[in-house]
Design goal:
The complex is a heterodimer of chains A (432) and B (480). Chain A is mainly α and 432 residues long. Chain A has 16 helices and three strands. A three-stranded antiparallel beta sheet of chain A has the order 2-1-3. With 480 residues, chain B is mainly alpha-helical. Classes of the chains: A mainly alpha (432), B mainly alpha (480). The interface between A and B is large, with 88 and 92 residues.
Chain lengths: 432, 480
Amino acid sequence: MTDAPAPVGPAVRTSQTAMQARLKKRHRAEMWFKAQGLMAITIAMIFLVVLVGRIVGQGYTTFQTHTLSVPVYLNPERIDAADLEGVNYDFIVAEAMMKKLGVVDDEFGLTSGKVMDLTSRDLGFQLLNQLKADKSLIGKTVTVTGPFKADADLYYKGQIKRSTPQDDRKLDDQQLDWLDQLKKDGSVKSGFNFAFFTNSDSTEPEQAGVLGAVVGSAMMLLITALIAVPVGVMAAVYLEEFAPKNRWTDIIEVNINNLAAVPSIVYGLLGLALFINWLNVPRSSPLVGGLVLALMALPTVIIATRSALKAVPPSIREAALGVGASKTQTVFHHVLPLAMPGVMTGAILSLAHALGETAPLLMIGMVSFVPGVPEGLTGAATVLPVQVFIWENASERAFHERTAGAIIVLLVFMIIMNAAAVILRRRFERRW
Amino acid sequence: MLTWLSLLFLALFSSAAFMLGKRRAVARAGGGKRVLHSLPGYYGSYAALWAGVPAALLLLMAAMFGGQVEDAMLQAQRPAAVQALEIDRQDVFFSDARAIAQGAAPSEIAYEGELKAALDVKVAEARRISALIRYSVLGLAAVLALAGFLLAFPRLSTDFRARNKVEGWVGGLLMACSIAAVLTTLGIVLSLVWESWRFFQSVSPLSFLLGTEWSPQIAMRSDQVAAEGAFGAVPLFAGTFLIMLIAMAVAAPVGLYSAIYLSEYANRPVRATIKPLLEILAGVPTVVYGFFAALTVGPLFRAGFNSLGAQLVGGPLDGIGQYLMQVQNQMALVAGVVMGIMLIPFVSSLSDDIINAVPQSLRDGSYAMGATKSETVKKVVLPAALPGIMAAMLLAVSRAVGETMIVTMAAGLQAKLTANPLDTVTTVTVQIVTLLTGDQEFDSPKTLAAFGLGLTLFVVTLGLNIIALRIVQKYREQYD
């Protein structure tokens, strides 16, 4: 054995430089690998930003609307007091508009037709309702305020541009001139679009709103919650606390795990065959939708509850049993209350998921046009995500804006539910 | 309405039974409650359960199946005039009879002569049957409630083990709830198999699974017998597979690399911000992704390919340029990419869990040998996590195969056998939606085909899930 250091020969030096080179290469590989990971995260985040940004960008204008105030002379020659329903109010409004704009109708009625394309039929309905209430208005001038047609509204919002060639847009140059003139007059007001929240679906984009869909979603979610949460919690309590460990409970467990991964559309097929064709539950009703979504949410509620129950330490159970509580009393007086925050968090999250589910509802006939708030649990209804689907299919451009608007409403509800779940978890969760 | 009212009465009766039972127990104990075997509330509950539950079950069963019993009884005898009608028309006749009897709106078919007479007879019969069922159910429910109470009440004595009995009921209820999950599976399997079996009576399973032509529109009406080959599902499987491949090509690398970065490289604050953001991406409803695909990604890709095509036209790649100029919004690529985006958080959170489950000692051992972080990840962590990651990918594949809204909104309807991602393809789920939305009669092969597709989808996704769960279970055992 020698204490002297070995002399550093040329061979070692080369191997050292080779090692240095290798090390450099390895560090480069390290950097590259890290950069790849960072790139993946960046890509995912870019997707998120683009997705949310596009939807908010397309949808935020839905919440703004423009209204027109126009004095209308209720010409007694045109209005038959005996037959108020039979009057063409749209034309009367158009006449008032033409007077305001200083144009005269030509013999073919082309001008009045073009003017009529600017304002919503809602103005005409308002005239009808005012006249029904007070027939003495005939011969007088009343001022009505109402929305524009969707295309005119889009022009004011800058989504239909003058720079587009005339043939490619719904409104021609003359109509745009009129709209500019009206704006200059000061008879156009912009404001928050309350109608979007107080109206239900309509064939006219400017009158279409989400109220019916929101009410439908609420009804359906109520049914889902009333079925899926109690049944799911009780099933989980049985499996976690009472069930003997044997082949049957194993089968049930595997079964539940697999059910959670069955495509949602299959639940729709089940709902169609079971609830609609066999049990004759009315099609497209919140009841059948709620039942289908309850079956879908059940496995997730069970899984969440089981993990919440598992998190309660055995000492709690032993203490309760030790002072003479029965098994049932232990579970219902001590274990379940302690697991409740976790249970509720899981339940809210799976309900939030059910709120956004669309595919199974298409199977049970929820794609029909429902102009109004659903009449009870067995009436025809539509729900928010399906409303999004229906509007997305509509050809009018204004519906695209509304689709994004409805998506924003849907996302707000989902964010509220998720936030509630997070708060529940933060405030009440106990770490043992 | 009557059901609700009777359930309300039953609830009142049941709570009365609770009070009586409790009072009787206390009275028996004679002031010293300790003589009782159980708390007084259990005696009350025992009486209330016997009084309420059997009758409530009967009322619920009647509400669910009463209509079908009514139908069966009404249709037991079919008048000659009705028997002369086609089967479909006979069903309409009976549903009209029931509608009139219930005061609802019947169909617009006008009945004349013998049929009208038969209808009047059947309407009267329907009213009679419905009243008979309603009152006999109500009467039976009342008898059950009373009998239950009378059976339970005299048994309440100081020695009676009321708590054990009530807990027996509770246990039964809990077990029934957990069986609901099994019944759901059974329901899915039975309904899919039953309806598919009816479908396979008109179309042979072989031509369904191996046929290459999908045009269900041919069999719009039931009397047009499905032409052989019109229900060949191979193009649908191919389309589903193509879109799934594209989606996985996006989701697998991005999701996996994100998971590696988050679990191995990122510090705590970065993880704390990125993870919730990924969860947002996971929580977005699929219909929103569909909207995004159809109105943002589709037009964007189309414009990109069209302008690329315009560049190439006239050059050496003229043919490709011409083709790219004609690309449409609804291409497989659009649906696949957006589905991939949807799957990123799914893949990344599953992989993250799996990578975190790899014991730290393995990493420490690798570092001790002088390996860099990336070498540790590539040569130690990933091989150890490989089975779990495979399982995660299989679950993602099963998700992609069953995903409906994105493809319904962004992929096409044309069933084409192609591997070109710029072409329009259709998928199994899209066809199920197309076949079942709209107003068709339910018995045509066209609508039943949807169940055949649904069964295939169910079997495939179930198979993928079972394999994935097996792998995960096996893998977990190694380190626990």
